[in-house]
Amino acid sequence: MRSKFAYGLLLALTLILGRASAADALLWFDAGRPKSDASQALGLLLSAANEGLDPHDYNAAALQQRLTQALQGPALPDAVQLLLDAALTAALQHYLSDLQAGRVDPRQIHANFSVPRHERVDVAYLRQELALHHLPELVRQSAPPLPMYLGLQRALARYRELAKHPAWQGALSPLPGRKLIAGQAYAGLPLLAQRLEALGDLPVGTAVPAVLEGPVLIALQAFQERHGLTPDGVLGQDTLQQLNVTPAARVRQIELTMERLRWTPFLQVPRMIVVNVPEFVLRAYEVHDGQVDVKLTMKVIVGRALNTRTPLMDEDMRFIEFSPYWNVPPSIARKELVPHLRRDASYFEHEGFEFVTGSGQVVGTLAPEHLDAVLHGGWRIRQRPGPKNALGDIKFVFPNNDNIYLHHTPAPKLFERTRRDFSHGCIRVEEPVALAQFVLKDEPTWTEERIRQAMEKGESNTLRLAQPLPVLIAYTTVIVKKDRVFFYPDLYGHDKLLDQALRQHSAGLSSVQAPNVVAR
Predict the structure, then answer these.
(1) Closest to 465 (Cα-Cα) out of 324, 317, 325
(2) Which residues are designated catalytic?
(3) 34 and 60, same structural domain?
(4) Domains held by the chain: number
(5) What is the domain-level CATH number for residue 232?
(6) Which of 280, 325, 467, 482 has its Cβ near the most Cβ atoms within 10 Å?
(7) Do both 69 and 181 map to the same domain?
């Protein structure tokens, strides 16, 4: 950025004015020539795209030109060496900072994460690492320490290569009808097979059938599974749309995911629950000696993309409520429940609702004036524990400003859907008993039998956790599982927002290139 570039120039001018000797100040030059470390540092900047970053952000091309001139021309005078040395130092500091902490504030794209502050690598430390020839190691240490990050690096390189593949020189043919099912003929089958083969879903050299069947059908199902679609082998408009997404677009999706990994607070604690919203999946994991051990994976239901999105956050789970009451949020009461009760009074008793007055008194009868009191904010509505309760029989509480929590549901059939954004924002979990066992791992008296008894008792009971457990609600549209790359739709449009923020970030960087310090 301008400030970092200006800092480099100020440092150089300070040194030129005699506040330190040129010999002591230089990192990258010796006797008027760039050292091998300078070439190595430049190589890292030029290859920033391998990390999903943009070499242009670090003036890599301009620095390459200046260093090449410095290598081929006469030895540089001290003042010129200092200027170019400072410019390369500032660029490398900028690169390492971006690699470690990302380029944008997560709050710009609606991620309320507790991101630790990362200090920029200072010159003294950089000098120390260079003396030990640790520059490549410094770069590795700055990248996110996540197994999936390495998988994304490999996927990034692969999809860049796929951009040159002939399978994407044209779009797939229009479907003969609304959809193509097994056994039907399709003019686009040769290109479909070529594309599935290039993506790794179809074995290389597979013969193309006359109709959709056999290995091509199986490969299509594998493709659907990897792209957040129902793996039914039916080639409909949604599947066709995903098949026509270019490798270049996938490259950008991977780059955005790598950026997210830099500031999403994974692996900061030994035990954590992570919900990945676009994937509709919860994972509970432990970390041992730097290795991630996923203990639990289950489906979840998240907030509707249209109007009740689940917010991104990291908070500590502190309570479990067995047989919970559902305190209907005021917005749901005003917009949905009160109008419903005015139309159908029997719904009140049938679903087990009751009123709670401002003083805490429970009122179990329905009356128009009671509904008016709810609309005016004096009373609230809650649902008693039981089989009809919207929270099911257990609620996992991590206090937050949005009143979001994990809970079970009396409508488990929705977990069978591929796309699962049906809630008002809270997260419904498929296997609540297994999740409770993970949460209560260090509470030996809370056996599976006791957990089930508390859930089925029908009497609300709140358990305070002896040790808070971090919960992370994250947003990742690319996942690597055993070298298979899975892409998920940008459910809430957060990838689009991140892409815009990164483009604005790059546009806002200094347009001033490295100074023409070797010109005579």
Answers:
(1) 317
(2) 407, 426
(3) yes
(4) 3
(5) 1.10.101.10
(6) 280
(7) no
H or E segment and range at residue 22:
helix 22-25
Give every CB contact of residue 251 below 8 A, 6+ residues apart in sequence. 156, 159, 160, 163
Structural domain boundaries, residue 15? 2-146
361 with 452, same domain: the answer is yes
How much is the pLDDT for 31? 86
Within a domain: 126: yes
Note whether 328 and 337 are within 8 A (CB).
Answer: yes
On whether the CB atoms of residues 319 and 451 are closer than 8 A, the answer is no
User: How far is residue 113's CA from residue 62's CA, in Å, rounded to a whole number?
Assistant: 36
Count Cα atoms within 13 angstroms, Cβ side, for 27: 32
Tokens representing 301?
């239901």
Burial class (CB within 10 angstroms; exposed 0-12, middle 13-18, buried 19+) of 318: middle
What pLDDT is recorded for position 73?
83
Residue at 512 is within a domain? no
User: Which pLDDT score is estimated for 260?
Assistant: 96
Distance between first and last Cα of the chain: 27
Same domain? For 27 and 140 the reply is: yes
Is the same domain home to 127 and 219? no
In our burial notation (b when 16+ CB lie closer than 10 A, e otherwise), range 29-65 reads: beeebbeebbeebbebbeebbebbbbbebbbbebbbe
Phi-psi region of 413 (alpha: psi -120 to 50; beta: other; left: phi over 0): alpha
Q: Which of 405, 270, 256, 400 is nearest to 325 (CA)?
A: 405
Q: How far apart are CA 376 and CA 357, in angstroms?
A: 12
pLDDT on residue 514:
47
Strands 353-356 and 362-363, bridge-based pairing:
antiparallel
Nearest to 474 by CA among 299, 293, 257, 221: 257
Please report, for residues 278, 354, 357, the alpha-carbon distance to residue 360 in angstroms, rounded to integers and kept in the order given: 39, 12, 5
CA-CA distance, 238 to 489, in Å (whole number)?
Answer: 11
Q: What is the per-residue pLDDT for 24? A: 63
Sign of CA dihedral 201, 207, 212, 214: negative
Low-confidence stretches of the chain (pLDDT < 70) are: 1-24, 510-520
Q: Which residues contact 302 (CB under 8 A, 6 or more apart)?
A: 275, 277, 280, 310, 420, 421, 423, 427, 491
| 3-class DSSP string for 201-270 | CCCCCCCCCCECCHHHHHHHHHHHHHCCCCCCCCECHHHHHHHCCCHHHHHHHHHHHHHHHHHCCCCCCC
Rounded to two decimals, the pTM is 0.91
Residue positions counted in the chain: 520
How far is residue 493's CA from residue 143's CA, in Å, rounded to a whole number? 26
Q: How far is CA 123 from CA 36, 170, 313, in A?
A: 18, 50, 34
* Secondary element (H or E) of residue 198: helix 189-199
Instruction: Supply 244's token pair.
Output: 């026509």
Which pLDDT score, from 0 to 100, does residue 2 have? 43
